[in-house]
Design brief:
By secondary structure, the protein is mainly β. The chain is about 5% helix and about 35% strand.
């Protein structure tokens, strides 16, 4: 996992905290040799992605999020990883639902400066089974946050991201943005006792580190959140903690040292009902139940 940060690891990583973010190289155009070349298709305009709406946790990153149907008066939600919970890693098969929490989050503006401290009322949902997510319900509404701090929530996309799409991983903890593409998808991603389904695999430019756990993965065409950053293979081991392996439908195991992953978030959308309540019985909701 892109580990939550503690003591010695934090001190080690601080030495590299100011490094420039990795950026995927843009492909060069090729010039047609025919006398009358056909016009090239226009590339989609990229959305400017910054830190607005991201949050820093005590040990991880996260983001203020809404679904396409969330209303201004709904209690706001913060998305991070299940392994970033203040109570520790949920066990395989464990689901946390509606558990009281007073955790605080540093809300950032577009420049990455802290503009407010937000506070949770509860952990609305969290698990490390099939996916690696935590969803906190805050004590303020979207309208209150917008009015008081001028920050809008990021929107969760309700469709699966496409292979090859350009993405940015935005870490509120490090105030660092990684740029790359969706390289593909892992049918199953196994790490220690946990197994995640249909995980996003990044191209190598997104070389995320400890503390980036929980960062929103933003599609640069739509500006919407398509995944949440959670892990990477650090030393080339197979299926161990901090060294996830890919397992395909036939059971073949592949290890990709230095490659990082995220968990898709479109599956969250059907599980959020009126008032931003997590309802695991809603039609189309496939998140694990307690």
């Amino acid at each position: 996992m892109n580990k939550p940060l503690t003591g010695a690891l934090l001190a080690l990583l601080l030495t590299g905290a100011a490094a420039a973010p990795a950026v995927a190289s843009a492909p060069r155009d090729t010039v047609a040799q025919a006398p009358a070349p056909a016009p090239r298709a226009q590339a989609a305009t990229a959305v400017a992605v910054d830190f607005a709406g991201t949050v820093a946790l005590s040990n991880c990153s996260g983001s203020l999020v809404r679904t396409p149907s969330s209303l201004p008066g709904d209690p706001a939600l913060v998305l991070s990883n299940g392994h970033c919970l203040e109570t520790g890693f949920p066990a395989a098969g464990e689901v946390v639902k509606d558990q009281r929490s007073s955790r605080s989050f540093s809300l950032l503006n577009s420049a990455g400066s802290k503009v407010a401290t937000l506070r949770a009322g509860k952990i609305a949902y969290a698990t490390m089974t099939d996916t690696d997510i935590s969803i906190y319900q805050l004590t303020k509404t979207y309208a209150q946050i917008q009015s008081q701090y001028g920050i809008s929530a990021l929107t969760l996309n309700d469709v699966r991201p496409a292979q090859g799409s350009a993405i940015k991983v935005v870490s509120g903890y490090w105030k660092r943005i990684y740029s790359c593409n969706v390289d593909g998808f892992a049918y199953r991603l196994k790490e220690g006792e946990w197994t995640w389904k249909d995980s996003v695999r990044y191209t190598s430019s997104c070389n995320t580190i400890g503390g980036t756990s929980g960062s929103p993965v933003i599609d640069t065409t739509t500006g919407k959140v398509v995944a949440v950053n959670n892990t990477g293979n650090e030393s080339g081991e197979s299926c161990t903690v901090n060294n996830p392996c890919e397992v395909d439908q036939s059971g073949t195991v592949t290890v990709r040292q230095g490659i990082n992953y995220a968990q898709q978030t479109y599956t969250i959308v059907p599980c959020v009902g009126a008032g931003n309540v997590i309802d695991l019985n809603r039609p189309g909701c496939v998140l694990p139940k307690p």
